## 1
Amino acid sequence: MTRVLVAPDKFKGSLDAAGVAAALARGIAAAAPDVEVACAPVADGGDGTLEVLANAGFVPVPVRVDGPTGVRLDSAYARRGDVAVVELARLVGLQVLPGGELAPLDASTVGLGQAIARAVEDGCRTVLVALGGSAGTDGGAGMLQALGAQVVDDGGAPVPRGARCLAGVRRADLAGASELLDGVEVHALCDVDNPLLGPRGAAAVFGPQKGVASDDVARVDGWLARWADVVAASVGRDLRDVPGAGAAGGTAFALLALRARVRSGAEAVLELLGLPDAVRDADLVVVGEGSLDEQTLGGKAPAAVAALARSAGVPVVAVAGRATLTPAQVEAAGIAGVHQLAELEPDPVRSHRHAAELLERVGRRIGTERSVLRSVGGGTQSSVDAPGPATAYRAAMVRTASSTT
């Protein structure tokens, strides 16, 4: 029996990853009832990570923290055994700003540190920090303070919260945070390689997304530079240029100061979900996200799943609300074909509103390509002279389309 693995990320603003997978699976099953369809919604370490990890045995642990602007917030981290996953977005991210009001210079990461501390106090010995969607650019200073670090001004008083307060920081002592994390393995999950400072840094690239005005970007970058100097003096290492240090408003930089390991968020989450084994057992993999673009190729979940499939010799088809990748980029990513909701509904407002219905229609289209599914099922690509699975899938799609026009 042909096995199809449906492993999409969320369609932001429309459906979460589980909803996307379910809609596609319904369509495939309706058109091809003899095909075995398995759903494996995925994430890349940003918002939505905890939801998909529920499918891998992680359970939510309630935690009450200071939100990005200091308002107390009921949230959770996820735990499986002694492994914890802490999702920044649901603790101090844009999505939990009170009233959705941006506060780029005042938002802090204190709540993230509180959640990490709680996980460690609960006995977790590995903590994966899912970065992405942060509301501020405080360089992780608030997180360090919540973990027990001393971050003080010229008078020896603790600096207040937020990026603007980095202007007054004079000294940092990370001993308290290091002591709390002694014996704990910390991983910073991110999908960017930006340094802390400069034209590709946290302020210049990600600041505007959080509401930093163009006139303030250079000022925030200067505050972060001062913070980098202070941290370098404290830990004896200059971490500002480490790839990924600029992730989540510089939170990754602070985690690096605590000797955390920076990892691809997508790869780490896929590993926790057991995707490598699931992909190897499939005959076709369906990936997807709302926008399939160049950012996708920078380590987002669809590209990571496609890479797993390519290494396993399994063809991949992608589904997106809209796709801006060139055919060459799609092929280089190991994707045989792309289905866009925009092809069915060009109005983006209606497409967002009716995403589930449109995805189900796309699923039917995939399931209707019976010759395609059969051509890749059952290990038919055994000959060393046979074309690769993606090439075979693409050719079969063309044959199917030609026969129905």
## 2
Amino acid sequence: MLRALYSLLFRLALPFVLLQLWWSGRGNPGLRSHWRQRLGYLQPVAQPVIWVHAVSVGETIAAAPLVKALLRHYPDQPILMTAMTATGAARARALFGERVQVAFSPYDTPGAVGRFLDRARPVALVILETELWPNMVALTRARDIPVMLVNARLSERSARGYRRIGGLVRPMLASLDWIAAQAEDDARRFIDIGASPQVVTVTGSIKFDVEIEPEVRLAAASLRNSLGASRPVWIAASTHDGEDSQVLAAHRGVLEQYPEALLILVPRHPERFEQVAHEVTAAGFRLARRSIAADARAAEVYLGDTMGELLLLYGTADLAFVAGSLIERGGHNPLEPAAWALPVITGPQVFNFEVIYDALQAGSGLLRVADSDSLARAVLSLLADPQRRVSTGRAALAIVAANRGALENVLTGVVARLPR
């Protein structure tokens, strides 16, 4: 009954959702394209697929090791990855090219999900992290298709929200064949909100199994040479509205001591690229843009305004600030810069990745800051002490190496639940 009410409300809201999609796509045509896929009108597939759903960039990155392992394990089995955002879809295409089909996931109405299932004909649905939608789960499971939630995480804040709609959440959790939780606390919270203990396993986080391909390392080295091999370079990655001004203020402080320093500024969402470019120039900084490929040796700020290149850009920097953490966003995944052996700096708001940040801090691979002033001080302290910078970066990389292995656990669990 509650799912029927939820479906009715979603249908009523759908025209406004599509209008918002159109409006948001003014600065990002990728949001407007393929809108029919969002209503379930997928191009019919030639043969049934393994459906992997990763909502946005972070989940797509997390899914990458698993998808690569599935491609090795099932070389003749097509894989379809879906995303809710244009950035997530673009990252999937950048990671896998033609090896994986990429589409936008259907909106969670019975009609859209049903049409999608008719056309995709999945043999299994693998959902990343916490991207649970009632109709997606229920209608897929109603067709006897196994549904798995892997690399699952659930913050205390999210758990409180799920408890408020327990009548909708509990049946959804009961439909899941497997929940592969990142940590004991995540497993406990899923059980607390209604998951059966029999389907919950603690596997660790597959984010630790991040790989940097040799061609990415070569491209990063080439780009660093073009930016200036000997100048100090730091990156502020995945910034949100309200953070760019703080990062730029910190960079101004860095330039006072290191006039040749370069900030690589990478906004989280492509629709903000133009806004951030204007903010940089309005603040008086010399700007170069990745999308234009102009000479950046005289620039003070290098704007990462392309999609799917964050891992590459990390490889050009001496240290990394991972954003989404100076505002109440909950932070972003710090393991990509850690895999490059970069010291990681974060703000205070990292509740979405609390276990990972705690591990980095315990292993001396992390610096925490509170605002733009302390961010500037942290950057300057690392630039002034190369030995500390290297040791902090190596400590971050050691945490990544020590926690690898979740991928094998997750792959084993997924394979065991796939149809024979």
## 3
Amino acid sequence: MVQGKGIHITMLGDFVITCNGIPLKLERTNTTKAMQALQMLIYYKDTGLPRNVFMDALYSRDDNITDPANNLKVTVSNLRRLLQRAGLPDVAIRFQGGSYYWQCEQPTEIDVEVFQAQVKYCRGLQGDALAAELEKACALYTGDFLPHLQAEDWVIAAAVHFREMYFKCVRTLAAYFQEKGDYNRLLEIAAQAAALYPLEEWKILHIESLIAMERYQEAKSVYEDAVATLQKEYDIKPSPRLLECLRRIDRSTESKNVTINELQGLLKESEAMAGAYYCALPSFIDAYRVVSRILERNGQSAYLMLCWMVDGKGHPITDKEKASKAGEKVSKAICSTLRRGDTYTQPALDRFLILLMGTNLENCSVVSGRIDANYRKDPARGITLRYKLAPVSDMASEEMFQEKPCWT
């Protein structure tokens, strides 16, 4: 299709209909019944949608619908008026032989069809030709299929199909580029995959490509981001393979012939940030152990504070999404309350560990009170904070490092 001419429909990462290069204004959201019907009709345009399948997909979960057949007629009627108002020419919703069809007389390009055709074209190719065409396929994949409808069964099935197709392209390219030693192209597809899906597999591929290019500081940043994402979003700790990436970065940095000033530049923070220092759990554990050894020598004191979230009745927060959103507010309150010399981490969705330097038990109570005060400026509804303290030592409070939420 000529660029900018005809109708282009985006279904990967979003839903947008463009006519002759101009995005159409349909409804405010892509999740109304009429918009859901439109997206289904477009996706099943070649086979059509049998009335009973169409009806079940739209209304089977709505207990308030007493006459789904009539509701379907109303939805289709609304959709026809919607398309007419949007100024989409030569488009009709046709009913024939018990099924509904999307009918468009204009040249139409749908991104999922283009993506599938590109992947199919790669079959039978080899070597550089295969790699070049697979790169084009990866560039066409811009995100999950209709992400705003991920709760719908028909969307889930299609999204998994396209996602696995994309993953297969990335894995094939990664193996080829690693064999060829083409790390620039490996980095490009690894970074894209990690941005779309922050999964450990793609984060590791991203890190390994940076290590191969001796870009160790960038690799370390990607590693820290991966660990933080795994802990916060998925509540899991790094795998042995991810930890091995860190060891490779450390070994490579140690082996480089660099000056002390260059090393210092790698070690220091990129900018002076106010508040406490946040780090991933493995780094926090190292900091804790180093501090405990220092205290043996200088006689100063430090405390480990456990902060966790509970509901209004003092019960653990069992809703992970609620705990995740509340955790962002608690983290902000902790960071703004503590000094730059203090360190904290979030080992689970509902808890935080804080390393308080050069303080005593009485001052720790003051700190928790200030955290509460800052948290109450922007609290999560129905969630309060609880605290537990232990003096820092080699043997103290090891159970606090366990990476499991309070409710398990």
## 4
Amino acid sequence: MSRSSGSKEPVGFGTHITAGGIAGAMEALCCQPLDTIKVRMQLSRSGRAAGTKPRGFLATGAMIVKRETPLALYKGLGAVLSGIVPKMATRFASFEAYKEWLADEKTGKTSVGNIFLAGLGAGTTEAVVVVTPMEVVKIRLQAQMHSLADPLETPRYRNAGHAVYTIVREEGISALYRGVTLTAVRQATNQGANFTAYQEIKKLAHRLQPELDGLELPSYQHMGIGLISGAMGPFSNAPIDTIKTRLQKSSFPPSTSALSRISSIATEMWRVEGVSSFYKGITPRVLRVAPGQAIVFAVYERVRGWIERGRGVSEGEWSSE
């Protein structure tokens, strides 16, 4: 989220992180089932050469619930929740730093192009520091097809902590950073597109409603803008996300280079499943990311208001993925 230039007193960093962390946790709780379905769709082997038709997101969700109980839709939630606060802290702090460095020295304002660059930088930073290891663990947990209702059916990874321990012990700590390049590209494009779209649409909303005269937009408009800006990233980088998911699930000999791994996965997808395989899971991903950002905006604004009430901090303008 970014603060608009102006004379208003900025929201404190602690408030920024607390509200962002709570908002992120609420987003994860509400949207994790869609993310699990997306991962299963991306990992499924189907297409022209595979001899099977791709399964839709509703059918995939129904299959998970039938075979593994509804709780299976929340596999990997522990990994997501444990990474939400550091992810938000890294995103917000790095974006503000990059935005300040790129601001005009005379006016203190940051241009649209530089906002996009700051978003790219923030996305890359969070991918390297937090998101990649978190997603490696999450995907390993989500990929396990075991029923949570059967105590005798023991999964390979019992929980997020056990998954980290097992991955590091068997594959080395570098395995937690498998796909870091693709994750960085995905997060960078997500943040660049979302920060820029959010701020530009917000400016348009203010121009179309001159009666607001500098006042904050209503919450439902924040949610609507977040919904639109949140959908930008998934459509722009779906192939990258699908290849990344398969890369983080797969095991390769330690001597295999990252480029060889990516090339091998992409070639097999093209040869066996066709071009449509690169967009597997796009529906649940959009349905997860876009409403997720609406949730983040609504919860963030409400929690921030609770924390800052009585401290005399003015309402500011913020943007987020």
